Amino acid sequence: MRRPIIIWWSGSRRSWNRPGPRRGPRARAPHPPAVGRPPAAARAWRWPWGALTVYGLTLAASLWVLAGGPRRLFPPLQPVTAPLGGRTAGPSSWAGRTLAALGVEEATARAWVEAALPAMLPPAPAPRSWRSWLGAALADLSGSRIHDLRQLVALALPVMEAAAARPLPAAAPLPPGLPGPEAVAPALPGDHGRVWAQLGSGPLIGIYHTFTRQTFGGGGSGYSTDWPRTVVQVGWWLAQDLHRLGVPVVQARVDNMRQGLLDAYHLSYRTARQILTWYPGVRVLLDVARGDNPDPAATTVELAGVRVARIAIVVGTNRLLPDPYWHQDLRFALRLAGRLEADAPGILEGKDGVSTVPYRYNQELLPADLLIRIGGPGNTLAQERYAASYLAEALAQLAHTGALTRGGG
């Protein structure tokens, strides 16, 4: 049976309702398979080893951090403002352990690097906690460290300041190469050539020289082992004047330059430590040296018609290495500079005669530990002699007022 055909007229356009096949997208030719590559259905599934490796390493590192691995592998650094109270049992970093194995002190290694590549040692701030900031602020305001019970008690009870603080104990026995207490070198000036020249019982001031071979008068290399022409002679004059003024003193005439300039501070550190070991009553350490300015006009002043070598006081800080006493060193330096300027106006170099440097210069041993530079290579020994006399007068006045027995404060 045939269906009727219905024709719809709409203007000039007609539509038919005759059923027919629907038009779909044109069939396309299949893509040819890639050469050497099997179809997707034929490829076997593989493990994503690269992603799994990265994920496993990340997970293992996270577990290691949570278990405290970095804390055990890299011990936390101690802020430079924190009081040390003494030397640690041993180096904790790989660099420290390497230097210890080679028998090289940290100060010597730093001097080597600084001499070869000065730009390699920029001041790097150490990490600080809120306790470190608080301790530094209290130390600046009160001059006392919050970890030092004796200083806190002395701050509350000023009468406690009359009790003298003991210096740091020695961390090691007499180092090899350091002369014994009875050692004698006939070429040394005074005291029958004794290396450890003690004047008076119970020395209060200890004098030593890092650069023992520095000479005066100009000419030559500026260094010599003819001790009466060196800074050792100036230190002996200073010791004699202090003893004459009633201040017991000891001068260590150990040649700390016997291994050269780079090792001088390493050897002088041992010398200073030995002074504190054999003479525990020492409250002031002075490293007496010569300045480097070759112009005599800048290092000389005329006082009472006499030309005198000028004096510079150098205070190390904790900018590069820890120094728990540098604030007290600075306070003592300012008191000494004030006394010198009052007795001999113009004898100090610079604005006030005191300069601070980022290096410690072995001044971390006592609260009154200073580097004293007298004159320069162009000054004469006579000018050095007058300067030593003025310095002794100022130190003796501080000693008689009790400033030295309070650790320089």
From TrEMBL:
InterPro entries in the record: Spore_II_P
Keyword match Transmembrane helix: yes
Residue stretches of biased makeup (Basic residues): 20-29
Region (Disordered): 16-37
Pfam families noted in UniProt: SpoIIP
Residue ranges crossing the lipid bilayer per the database entry: 47-67
Keywords noted in UniProt: Membrane, Transmembrane, Transmembrane helix
Name used for this protein in its record: Stage II sporulation protein P
Organism: Candidatus Hydrogenisulfobacillus filiaventi
